[in-house]
Amino acid sequence: MSRPILFDAVLLDRDGTLVEDVPYNSDPDKVRPMPGARAALDRLRAAGLKLAVVTNQSGLARGLFTERQLDQVHRRIEDLLGPFDSWQVCPHDDGDDCACRKPRPGLVYAAARALGTVPTRCVMIGDIGRDVTAALAAGAAGVLVPTPVTRAEEVAAAPWVAADLPSAVTEILRRQAALSPAESVARAGATVARRVRVKGPGNGRTVLVVRSDSAGDVLVTGPGIRAVAAGARRVVLLCGPRGRAAADLLPGVDEVIEHRLPWIDPAPGPVDPQEMAALVTRLAAVGADEAVVFTSFHQSPLPLALLLRMAGVARIAAISDDYPGSLLDVRHRVPVGVPEAERALSLAAAAGYVLDGDDEPHLRLRPVPPPPPEAGEPGYVVLHPGSAAQARGCPPELAERIAEELCAAGHRVVVTGGPHERDLTARVAGRHGRDLGGRTDLAELAGIVAAAGAVVVGNTGPAHLAAAYGVPVVSLFAPTVPFGQWGPWRVPTVRLGDATAACRDTRAARCPVPGHPCLSGVEPAAVLDALRLLGVPPDRPATGSTGSRATPEVATVGGGGGR
After folding, report:
1. Cα 549 from Cα 58, distance rounded (Å)
2. Which of 91, 370, 409, 513 supports an S-S bond with 60, CB 3.0-4.6 Å?
3. What is the phi/psi pair of residue 275, to 5°?
4. Burial class (CB in 10 A: 0-12, 13-18, 19+), 206
């Protein structure tokens, strides 16, 4: 059985991550490794991961040391920490406006090329926000290992935080291993097989997979469902009405059953015993040999597991912190903060299913229609201001200003939204944007997103559509849920917004703080800067002056000397 690859390379910042931060160090004798660095790096090497150092060294531009002195320092680092497969150095200062100085992603792209891989298979470890921003802007994973120079807002904004370098390495290796079936899972499957006289996971089986939630939730479960499909004869997906359109876009699904589950639906009605009995009958008619119940971290699979047992399903796998009794045969656990798509893949692996060897762990969709003529030629910027959860959408006033600023800067803007958002999209599009609000179903919206140069969006479904097509995302991410878990997955992304806002981790559907402060403080100029960071230029001459900072707000961070 082939093993899916999440990471095949680890990129490391130098000062403050691998070695103690000595400002503008030109003396090899002052090199001091960070605690546990050598052993941690050797664990990565033993696991077959390639290693590269990516470091800003503005001391070269400032004349504070020579290239020869820098090489001597690097040789000393390798004497102490072992060899690296690539060294990528930015010799410029901020004023040089180069493409390689972090937070720009040039060094990440260069390191990936040098290592023979792509950024989405890389994970970057660093101690300041610039490191993480550069990683995310290239589509790599980013791990922040805070030090005394790391700012609190950088820690809050990071998708993945580790206490130190050894802890970061442990989690990288754990997440990599979680995508492959474990021996203990195989033993558990064999036990079930003896009890119910059926085979373990295999190509002759019908598997019922479940994700009863919104369209975005169903989309991010796609890789896990594809893993199940790779090892099953037939896959039936049970979803709710809010996720049905997304279910129809997922490869690997042979049949969809739509049913509202009152313990999952955000606006549930009373539990109807007759309706539950009808659901049991419908599930029994599937003839499933087993079920894999995908849930989010705050949801329980156990009510459905009980109904599945009543429907005669012999083998059930799910993630559950609660004691499942006899309801689950594979009880899987996942640490908080793991990206939802990886969470789903790890459950599939625990049940004995992995992606085909040539199927990358990415979001992927069935073919969709091309964008309508009203969208214009490909390369436009999609601005999607709304969300089914008001707290996660962009404040209308801000969305208006963003559209105006983008158009003035020379970007073509296509504004999208659902049927209930027509007034919003018309307001945001104004006189210069193209308003397609309420004119598309989800498949047609996916076609519009697929042809975009970038998508500006909150934490809602189109962000995951963009990830499925590799379209860069400017993520106006309200921190009501963890960014590392729900942010765009494995696609170039710049996050904007106040990650320390009072709504953080509340899971609120409506903004609990007057004025939507987590996003209302974002300036349209920051969106323009984010597009530049992502390498998305305007395709028309600017029609007016626009403000701009050197880098997006999330990336304008301090750091030790020599960075």
Report:
1. 20
2. 91
3. -65, -40
4. middle
- What is the bridge-based pairing of β-strands 9-12 and 122-126? parallel
Residue ranges with strand state E in 372-530:
381-384, 413-415, 434-435, 454-457, 473-476, 493-496
Condensed to tens digits (0 to 9), the pLDDT of residues 497-522 reads 999 999 999 999 999 999 999 999 99
Q: How would residue 433 be classed by pLDDT, with cut points 50, 70 and 90?
A: very high
When pLDDT is cut at 50, 70 and 90, the band that residue 561 belongs to is: very low
SS3 at position 87: strand
Catalytic annotation, pick one of 13, 21, 213, 529: 13
| Predicted TM-score of the model (pTM) | 0.92
Q: How many CA atoms lie within 13 A of 563 on its CB side?
A: 24
Token output for 159: 């998708």
**Predicted pLDDT of residue 553:** 36
Identified catalytic residue from 15, 21, 217, 329: 15
Our answer to whether residue 13 is catalytic in this structure is: yes
Q: Could you read off the pLDDT of 237-295 as tens digits, one per residue?
A: 999 999 999 999 999 999 999 999 999 988 888 999 999 999 999 999 999 999 999 99
Per-residue buried b or exposed e for 98-110, using 16+ beta carbons within 10 Å of the residue's own CB: eebbbbbbbbbbb
Per the document, the length of the chain is 563
Tokens of 432: 């210069």
Q: 201 in helix, strand or coil?
A: coil
